[in-house]
Design a protein that fits this description.
8-stranded mixed β-sheet; 5-stranded mixed β-sheet; binds zinc ion; alpha+beta
Length: about 650
Amino acid sequence: MTPLEELRHSGSHILATAVLRLFPDAKLDIGPPTDTGFYYDIDLEHKFTADDLTKLEAEMKKIAEENQPFLRKEVSREEAIEIIKSRGQERYKLGRLADIPEGEKISFYQNGEFIDLCAGTHIRYTAKFKAFKLLSIAGAYHRGDEKNKQLQRIYGTAFPTKEELAQYLERQEQAKARDHRKLGRDLKLFHIDEDVGQGLILWTPNGSILRQELQNFIGDELRKQGYSQVFTPHIGKLTLYKTSGHFPYYKESQFTAFPEPDDLARLSAEGCGCAELTARLEGVTAQFADEINRRAGKEVIAQDRVMDPTKLLDGFMLKPMNCPHHIKIFASQPHSYRDLPVRLAEFGTVYRWEQSGELNGMTRVRGFTQDDAHLFCTEEQVAAEIQGCLSLVKTVLTTLGMADYRVRVGLRDPDSSKFTGDPAKWDAAENACRTAAATLGVPFTEEPGEAAFYGPKIDFVIKDVIGREWQLGTVQVDYVLPVRFDLSYVGADNQSHRPVMIHRAPFGSMERFCGVLIEHFNGDFPVWLAPEQIRLVPISDKVIDYGRDLLTQLRAAGLRATLDEHSDKLGAKIRRGEIDKVPYTLVLGQKEAEVKSVSVRSRAKGDEGVMPFADYLERVKQEVATRALPVKKPVTAATTVAPASGGKPAAPEAPGVN
Ligand SMILES: [Zn+2]
Ligand SMILES: [Zn+2]
């Protein structure tokens, strides 16, 4: 354990000590450190309350002041059982003891009257534990299995100093205030409706503007790089995904496949059961299996899936990936080496089955639109194409004020048999990824064993304003799908060659990216992204006509403006503009109307005084055209990093996981 983990894990022991002092009936399970603190899982009839946390904290403070030493004691298995029984803790601790393999040391740690089965390590004296806080209570199944009893988990955190603790708690508060689920509601950006379904985002008008502006921006950059826009349907036939390998191998992360209506009616009439229906949807002909296995050069479709052709059904599924559709566009025409690279881009919507417990606002959903593209190129072009992907990412992140990011280059583990294909090609592709990452001028790490099985990849991790890290999307090199789909182009030598495919969705999905952006900007979007850019606020009814005139001019200039015609006081109107986080509020009085000026208040700078409307219009048009960031007072930089909330993106390890 690191010293910080040691400190926090000691907190688990001190918490358990306090729990048993106040609740002697409590049965203890396990108390490890976490990335941000510690917890202990406790079985107790009484439901812990916020009030209990305060009392427990006070007791923990006492225990720290008692300055108890942590004493290690190694015992035999028999002695261990005795100790656990003597403390009345056999319910969970005997099971935990049984987890320790025969022959391994069994140790207990004692502080004061409390003794716990533990491998260590700990701080030497409890007095070192002085900057801590209990944070929350949550339900947690014993051993994480919902078939087991649900225990109460008390979470806490601890730091070496009070200052670090205060800073952490402050940042947690900031994070809570800028939670995209809360801001999404307040600013009317998106809605999730039980009747539509969990994890399915309804983009409301305001959120749609945000998304559309981002898509326009990314789309503009893609066009500059020579990408072609395509559109493809939201469903595809099962044959397509049997060829790609996405079905049925990853079906647990996909919506259920469905047969054609006529087939379903006929089979129901025949009394066909669900299991048989599934088998018929998953089956393949012997010819199909042979062909795919021949292309792959090994058995990727097992013989037990081969079925009598008269029994087979070819249904449909909601697409879990855009790749097969784009491949079919590429394959729809013959290609010469002169056509390559072909770059097909689509804001493509895909559907994945996530457990409802995993869903979280916009950052973990069941339907999402990827900023997807597939590049088909020659071996020699791989390096330049990866470079192009990374330069796009750099442009977009810099424009959004997310200059603080790093990349992870996932390489193969040469000792693992998981990674298929020609080692020479792997080396070349890995070098291309490495070189491209190095030219970005941001920190990057090489992670052996983290490649996809079909090729190396690059992941992006950004740090937001308050120091939290978020994983976005990836760039992946793929040697497998071109083989599976038997793709080819005619080379300069007039021979047929296999193209290399690159999958790239650097921002992951529009849902996740917008969720991150909402929190990053705390809802205070730059003018070009703001759903409502300008609000006109007339002081009295006498200047409403002036307001309408300006509104027309602003809208004609392509700006998103509104006129507040409510009859409330000026202060209330200005306040409303602030709550709605409108970047500009223009106050209009009699004097302004006479000389065609406006009194400008901006979210970034506050009161900016009176200026001619024509000047203001030029300025804001410029700001939008250049996608300028608001110039703000600097935010206090955070020093430590909390884990990315929302967790890792849900990508099954299928060919073309982006
Ligand atoms: Zn311990
Ligand atoms: Zn793909």
